[in-house]
């Protein structure tokens, strides 16, 4: 029994590490994920790596091609537009439920998540086009906490999946925020205020604007319909 638990723990750990590395842009879009190389990198067996990659296929963070192996997805602007719209619709509904159902504990936890986000360094030292890993995690935690009180697990799971897919683009469109006049920190403050004021309509509007502004930034950064992220001029950085 303990051996099985240890194997499950190892598989979960490798999957988490792979997920983090893919979202951080460690490999370029379209790049093949070699089992032998990954086994050496994560110091585990190819069986464990294969299992982790297979689970990430289900999350759409890895693409499995028949008889060819595992690859990092190649993404298009058209797909990003669809994902953004689906995310907006999903979270507009989720935030309305959260505002209606959230209690004092949710408010306190939401303020704490925002405080962490505000106090976490935004850009990597020496590279103002690269977001810090800590900020990316804090940002995702804040948005997850916003919807947590909706108490609909399926909606929350979908939200997390869409967030990951969006992050793929954001990580590979590094200088995008330079192309639009935005204050990301202020956007988060306004979203928080609307949620705490129990103004579902305003919170929904602000969330949509938050995500659509990122989409516009990526478009302005040179991401075109016929140019996947692997050939984008901003493919080496990140934006959010």
TrEMBL record:
Keyword Acyltransferase recorded: no
Q: Which residues form a coiled coil?
A: none
Keywords tagged on the record: DNA-binding, Transcription, Transcription regulation
The GO terms this record gives for MF are: DNA binding; DNA-binding transcription factor activity
Ranges where the HTH gntR-type domain occurs: 8-75
Return any one Pfam family short name. Answer: GntR
Sorted alphabetically, which PROSITE patterns does this protein's record hold?
A: HTH_GNTR (PS50949)
Q: What is this protein called?
A: GntR family transcriptional regulator
